[in-house]
Amino acid sequence: MRRGRLKGPLGSHERPASPLGFRLVLAVFGAVVLLVGTVLAIVWAHSVPLAIVLGAGTLAACLNVYWVGRRLRHER
């Protein structure tokens, strides 16, 4: 294993690509799905408990998107 700062571009042999980009895509997709589910629970199903649960999941997914974005920005 090499010591010191890695100098190659991201994705090269010296500095392999991080899975955080793909994780960000999955996090955004999950947040969008939960948001759509929350809206449908309110408008179509008229279910307040389901809307609360899905809304909490949406907030958690948005926090995950923020966290993964910060990690990705810090890595670059």
Nutshell version of this structure?
The protein is built from two helices and no strands. With 76 residues, the chain is mostly helical.
Would you give an account of this structure?
The protein has one domain (20-75). The model has no long low-confidence stretch (mean pLDDT 85). With 76 residues, the chain is mainly α. The protein is built from 2 helices and no strands. The protein has helices at residues 20-43, 48-75.
Radius of gyration: 18 Å
Average pLDDT reading: 85
End-to-end distance: 21 Å
> How many individual helices?
2
Helix content: 55-70%
| Strand-residue proportion | under 5%
Report the biggest beta sheet as strand number plus sense, adding barrel if it closes: none
**Unreliable runs, pLDDT <50, ≥5 residues?**
none
Instruction: Write down the domain tally.
Output: 1
The run of helices and strands is: HH
* Alpha-beta classification: mainly alpha
Shape: rod-shaped
Count of extended strands: 0
Topology:
Blueprint (H helix, E strand, L loop, with lengths): L19 H24 L4 H28 L1
Helix pairs in contact: 1-2
Features:
76 residues, 0% strand, mainly alpha
